[in-house]
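tool_call: predict_structure(chain=1)
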Amino acid sequence: MQREAFLEKLASLRMAPRGGGERYPHKPLLLLWLLGRMQQQGNSACTYEEAEKPVSRLLDDFGPPSANRYRAAMPFVHLESDLWELSGDEGEPLGDNRAALCRAHAKGRLREEVEELLRKDPSLIAESARRLIDLNFTPTYLDPICDEVGLNLEAAEEAGWQPWKPTRARRRPGFRSEVLRGWRNRCAMCGYDGVLDRDPAGLDAAHVLWHSHGWPRRRGQRVGAVLAAPRVVRLGCNRPQRRPLGQSLTALRRPERARGEACLPPRRPAAA
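tool_result:
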């Protein structure tokens, strides 16, 4: 397998349709965990039991909420077969649930040609990680996900990494200043309103539903552009209820962090 063919396969993973603001990054997160394993151990071979806790934790932290405790089963079974080899005890079905996978002593690994490609070109591990995160998250997620899966991108860059140049929608000029004015130059979560001279300091604007992934950006559509610490917002601490832009937001995604308090409302609906 050639480098570009592998990167193209990463960009064309089959995933569940997106709806209601939800994302389903199960396969990208499993792949990112496998890339970390490749960098640390030189191979990606693992049993389902080894993958279950770390991959489920990744989905809890960076995916949509779910009552399912064992979330690694779905991508472990359904990751594309041209990237992933799955096997188990003879005669045991490999269903996408924990009981079936444990009963079959399921195990998997990236295909040999994929592993060989990554061994010969360690810089491809970093480029693959950046591409997966750029296509399925936002750049804000790069450091926390790489820390969680044990990926050292600097080491890969020193091996001759060639940067992946994303092709994503750019914000409309004036977006930040309009949102700043709409929230009276203060944080929508805590009310912080620091300034240096006459300019807001330590504040930025962020879309709750990411504009880089195709969500609407026009005034009056349920974008929920708020003024707050942008990394907190982009990592999912706030999620808009089904109400018009300009009303308060409720922290639904991470109740242990935000406790469900409503964000400060804007002075008037800001263009998104």
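agent: The two ends are 43 Å apart (CA to CA). Proceeding to next step.
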